[in-house]
Amino acid sequence: MSSRVASAPASGEDSLIARYFKPIATDPGAFALTDDAAVLQARGSDIVVTTDAIVEGVHFLPDDPPETIARKALRVNLSDLAAKGAQPAGFVLTLVLRTADDAWLKPFAAALGEDAKSYACPLLGGDTVSTPGPLTISITAFGRVPVGKMVQRRGARPGDRVVVTGTIGDAALGLDILKGGAVATAIAADAAARQALVGRYRVPQPRNALAAAVRAHASAAMDVSDGLAGDLTKLCAASGVSAVIHAPGIPLSRPAAALVAQRAVDIDTLIAGGDDYEILCTVPEADFEAFAQDARRAGVPVTPIGAVIAGSAIPSFLDGQGRELALKRRSWSHF
Amino acid sequence: MSSRVASAPASGEDSLIARYFKPIATDPGAFALTDDAAVLQARGSDIVVTTDAIVEGVHFLPDDPPETIARKALRVNLSDLAAKGAQPAGFVLTLVLRTADDAWLKPFAAALGEDAKSYACPLLGGDTVSTPGPLTISITAFGRVPVGKMVQRRGARPGDRVVVTGTIGDAALGLDILKGGAVATAIAADAAARQALVGRYRVPQPRNALAAAVRAHASAAMDVSDGLAGDLTKLCAASGVSAVIHAPGIPLSRPAAALVAQRAVDIDTLIAGGDDYEILCTVPEADFEAFAQDARRAGVPVTPIGAVIAGSAIPSFLDGQGRELALKRRSWSHF
Question: Which pLDDT score, from 0 to 100, does residue B143 have?
């Protein structure tokens, strides 16, 4: 039992929770974090459950600020809820920490609380455990959808449009910059672009404003987290269809487009890079105008990039001349 | 981006999930693990949410069998649901792995699937991420209770009986044996006792059979995970009361009682050790007979060990002569 740290009843873990996380656990179902469990009221809805962990050195870098780590941990989950057409309902947090470092925990909890408030996704509970390994943050988030209405990956039909929100590839470029890769050199003179791309890697902007439109119009949807090409492949596989994408139509940010134009990066990097946290969905042709209008009202840019076709082939990405791009990779995996 | 492992669309992570976890994700809300999220149907109930992570070297030992690690990871959460009076409804799993080792994952998933089935708590989804650090398993489990009926830590009233299920301290002794501590020496001759105590540490026996009785009769409840003394202190603090415990009345297993009798361990070790995963609850005097009867029907041994009293003092543990025991510690903490 010697590896366990004996302590007085007001243990380090408890006072850590009280100090930093109790103030942000304002939902009555959280019982101010003084209970073993939380209550999530379903209010007649289905509960959508999603869980995503982020690991130091894998999903964020050791010297990323605690504020951006907190926001990313929650937002990668909010992004899943958005893509499923669900309204955020709350989340639980598991913090796997090396040390209980106040200078790190205080800004982490504050930023998490801000996001919980602005996305109306309250902290309901959590667990804090020690590790000799890398900092790991696991969040399970909950959303509400009308019964039976969660938007699935399966459901895409030949003829549907393939649509993405925002721009693709920025986060992959941001990560390369943080690691001092080729992009860092290519973009050295443009501080604003550098900052914008790094920001996309560190702090996703989940598309929760689009959830209702996705639920109303999309035949299938998921968020883009492991690379557009690979994630589209997964969506098509789940739906039993294929797709053709017009690669020059994939929406790029100004800095990403400039880097492609000067051949500092190729398209593979952008569409296989991951960490976009945009929504990829398929929308029946007849619904597309209404979907685009709802998206405009929600303030979320959406771009049609191709079409669902019949078949089981891996989706193809065509260049401006209609030739299929030979992608060196489509996504990434932990193992 | 070099730290990320590029891969074909059928990535290692995806095929790992398909191979080992899809077969046990039989609930329709899990979508055979092919979606980003799961659906949990509330069926008119409140959803009780609990989350507990276990870390290699902290909550289990590096050479513990994968089967027992899987069962412990789920059961520590099932134990929380039981103490809250909730019926298991499902869980999500976050696996933080060093390597995707088939020889480890196969028995892990099989044992997890067995427990999911026998406790009627289906796997709904999860996330698998890589780490250079220790194996960490985070589970968020869900239960259903009638709206507003979750049993809380607060609610204990002066005069209520303090009750525990099963026996206390066995898991702490089991851990000491696995670490080759003093208990290992004291018990060297008794292989059956050694095995029983180690089993209590490795594979908790959560008291889900008692959930309905707890909901019907307990004024407050929690599970004993960090040591009876410390957990009772938490329950009393949440309820704004104190308690007096008759220490000789704390139920001990035969091997634990023998070790105390031969002075190989003291009572502190047993009541501050943790990992019991028994239920600690308070039951109004008028309800006690009915509670005990329901417990008998459920096949769960329950023992009254003391009484709730007014006040804010830390609960006291009295010896056979009514003298207060000076506890060196009451529980343990990660930090």
Answer: 98
